[in-house]
Amino acid sequence: MNVAVLPEGRCPSFAQFLIDEIRGRAFDHPTLVMSLDAVRFQYRALSQGLGRAHIHYAVKANPHPDVLTALLQEGSRFDAASRGEIEQCLALGARPEHISFGNTIKRPTDIAFAYQAGLRLFAFDAEQELEKIAAHAPGAQVYLRLLVGATGADWPLSRKFGCAPEAALPLLARAVELGLRPVGLSFHVGSQTRFAAMWRDTLDQVAAVWRDAQNAGFGLHLINIGGGFPAAYDYDVDAPHSYAAEVIDMVNARFPDATYVMAEPGRGMVAEAGVIAAEVMLVSRKSPDDLHRWVYLDIGKFSGLAETMDEAIRYQFVTDKDMGDMGPCIVAGPSCDSADVLYEKRPMMLPMTLEAGDKVMIKSCGAYTTTYSSVCFNGFPPLDVLVI
User: Fold this and answer.
1) Quick check: 305 and 366 in contact, CB under 8 A?
2) Residue 7's pLDDT band (boundaries 50, 70, 90)?
3) CB proximity list for 302: less than 8 A, separation 6 or greater
4) What is the mean pLDDT of residues 58-69?
5) DSSP three-state, residue 79
6) Cβ–Cβ contacts within 10 Å for residue 19, how many?
7) Rounded to an integer, what distance in angstroms lies between the CA atom of residue 174 and that of residue 10?
8) Within 10 A of 327 (CB to CB), how many other CB atoms are there?
């Protein structure tokens, strides 16, 4: 499928194309169906919107070899969270100097492997991490991840990663003492940040630390703005080109002296490029007067839909019966675990005639589904992938 669409807009036909493909096929178990054309479209739109920023695709979002190869052909660089992701990118032909080791929690042996493989750019947020990098990647370039406040993102990434702003200058100084080259700062505004304007306060926080570091003589030149670029789930988001352009305008205004700007889209790159083919296993009510039906799918939290935790990400379901009467449903997965309930606080509206055996197409599932899928919990096979 080759769709000619200006990158300034959004292309809804990719999802419909995948839904039509699923309708014409039989699946023995849940399968993620991916469109490489959609991945390429999204890369081009984000890249044009981000202007001078270099895209380091967050491999963890979807590491399928065909996805990585398509992005590599488009010119993408990569952000790796582990040795396994580094090995995969290198095996596909990525240049080591175009891979950043962005996890702030790394094994010493993995740091040594990455350094020996040619990687020179490592993230850190603590003194012990610096000491590990200095011991196993001497002279490497390092960038400091900052802890930023709540941003309103649907999937916040606060608390676990980053150092407090007041710890930044001492850590940069420690990096110099250890013979490393502190080159910049990084942050993450939070996954699925719905509107570009939500970046403003975070960028102001980071810019204040940047100015302090420059005034202290560290000569930083790299700013890593992380991810946060959204996908369309149960609400519309701005087109990728315009969203990215608004973000980079704010970045340029605050970091004019940054000569290397990194962006790490993951969800925003691949989520809308995938639709999961699922099936209804059971529809029931707990009592004759129960207001809500329970709809059990052959996919749940442990087989790819982990981001339904706390109902943070609300996927959209499509069935062949959507033109009929709809009613509220509690949606659950197939496993024998009581935590495997996807939507209960806010029931989903599904066809009243839905029954076991009906196909359910789940949109915007190209990110954080296959990588969250368990190997064989309850004996169910991991989420399969079909790339088109």
Assistant:
1) no
2) very low
3) 333, 335, 337, 340, 373, 374, 377, 378, 380
4) 98
5) strand
6) 18
7) 46
8) 15
For residue 5, is pLDDT > 70? no
- Cα–Cα distance for residue pair 247/263, rounded to 1 Å: 10
Q: What is the mean pLDDT of residues 368-374?
A: 94
Q: Which two tokens stand for residue 68?
A: 């990585």
Residue 166 has pLDDT above 90, yes or no: yes
**Helix residue spans in the chain (DSSP H):** 13-23, 36-50, 65-74, 83-91, 108-117, 127-136, 168-177, 200-215, 240-254, 267-270
CA nearest to 192, candidates 244, 266, 140, 137: 266
Asked if 371 and 382 touch (Cβ cutoff 8 Å), the reply is: no
CA distance 190 to 153: 5
Q: Known catalytic residue: 336?
A: yes
Which residue has tokens 């915007």?
364
Query: Per the confidence metrics, is the pTM higher than 0.70?
Result: yes
Which tokens belong to 227? Answer: 């991810």
Nearest CA-CA partner of 105 in 119, 122, 118, 121: 122
The Cα–Cα gap between 283 and 28 comes to 19
Measure CA of the first residue to CA of the last residue in the chain; give whole Å. Answer: 8
The token duo for 264 is 């790490």
Take residue 187 and report the two structure tokens written for it.
Answer: 């942050």
Distance of alpha carbon 45 from alpha carbon 270, whole angstroms: 12
Kindly tell me if the per-residue pLDDT of 256 is higher than 90.
Answer: yes
Residue with tokens 């995938």: 274
- Name the catalytic one among 11, 89, 163, 336: 336
d(CA 294, CA 338): 13
Q: Please report the beta strands in the chain, taking only residues with DSSP state E, as ranges in sequence order.
A: 31-34, 54-58, 77-80, 99-101, 121-124, 141-145, 181-186, 222-224, 260-263, 274-284, 293-297, 317-318, 326-332, 341-351, 359-362, 384-387
Read off the tokens for 134: 């200095």
Separation between Cα atoms, residue 326 and residue 346, nearest integer Å:
15
Dihedrals φ, ψ of 273, to 5°?
-85, 0
SS3 64: coil
3-class secondary structure, 176:
helix
